[in-house]
Amino acid sequence: MSRTSRKREHVEHALTTGQSGAHGLEDVKFVHNCLPDIAYEQVDTHTTIGGLALSSPIVVNAMTGGASETYTINQSLGMLAHETGMALAVGSQMAAIKEPSLIETYRIVRREHPHGILFGNLGAEATPDMALRAVDMIEADALQIHLNVMQELIMPEGERDFSGALRRIEAIVTALEIPVIVKEVGFGMSREAAEKLVSCGVAAIDVGGRGGTNFAQIENMRRTQPFDILNEWGISTAVSLLEVTQLAGRVDVMATGGIRTGLDVARCLALGASCVGMAGAFLRYAVDGEMQKAIEYVKSLHEELTVIMTALGASSIASLQRVPLVVTGDTYHWAAQRGIN
Ligand code: FNR
To answer: How many angstroms is it from 157 CA to the middle of ligand 1?
Structure first.
């Protein structure tokens, strides 16, 4: 199976399957504030991640590049990011590192979003030299390194040796002058893993929690003998945020995994994330070329977030991160057993 046809299959399966929905964010409740003492116009949703200023707290997260069809998808995503002021991550650039004729399928995002914040993307098998080339390729402002152990293990042609990843991440952090963001792809992240990443000097962690695009299901669709028992594997987005924000102040946190509404965005920010990533929710619009609808969707997300922040009396992301929350259900029980409060 070539890397290019795998990318086509991932897009196809992500559109038809693999939205697990169990992100746990419904366990996170806001405490209504009937005396917010602010005006809607006062709400400012600017934020930062790894020292980069973002005009929207929503980031178009890494999806694709590296096959001819993905050129148009990335072009649409670049247009969407440009029109709405969002930062955007490209999909893994390893395909273009190995085959330079594919560079344009990534570079198109820089052409569409010339002054925007762009994140490059590679896996933890990358070397510092590859990282430098990926950054150069799209003039990236930050580099994401994705961790996708369970996806690789279920993937028929996937990687089987995961040794040395931390050492390589540390070498990349040392080699680059821009922030490195380490992300999961939908299986979540624990406090212990986050500790190790912070000790390597990463600027930010994207928890990539369970509950949205489900790469166990997607890879199972590509297997003759599926490992269906693993379809619900992983740490939910809500729990991952509780785990990783234990390191608050030492690393910035981005929340990805099943985010679809302004309420999801608000809950993630209130749990301590600086911004949220959304991938699957934008894919259908990009594949269908429905960019006006996508722009409207992003506007409605911003409006929902601003309404919620107004109601809570939170005029900035920093004040939203301090509003009181009540955590219930499975998320509460997980936190209690793990000594998180
Ligand atoms: C992804 N994702 C991803 N992540 C990454 O770091 N590198 C990649 O190349 C890809 N490729 C990719 C392809 C497709 C088709 C999808 C839908 C997703 C994972 C993505 O960035 C994100 O972490 C997960 O999709 C979870 O977010 P959503 O989709 O639930 O918002």
So the answer is: 18
User: Each residue of 217-245: pLDDT tens digit?
Assistant: 999 999 999 999 999 999 999 999 999 99
| Backbone phi, psi, residue 58, to 5° | -105, 130
ipTM over 0.90: yes
pTM, entire model: 0.97
Per-residue model confidence (pLDDT) at position 1: 62
Query: Closest Cα to residue 90, out of 11, 238, 256, 73?
Result: 73
Cα(215) to centroid of ligand 1, in Å? 8
Pocket of ligand 1, beta carbon within 6 A = 10-11, 14, 61-64, 91-92, 121, 144, 146, 183, 185-186, 208, 212-213, 256-259, 278-281, 283
Out of 3, 61, 118, give the residue to mutate to test ligand 1, the one with the largest number of ligand atoms within 8 Å of its CB.
Answer: 61
Q: Per-residue pLDDT for 68 more than 90?
A: no
Mutate to test the pocket of ligand 1, among 213, 265, 297, 298 (most ligand atoms within 8 A of CB): 213
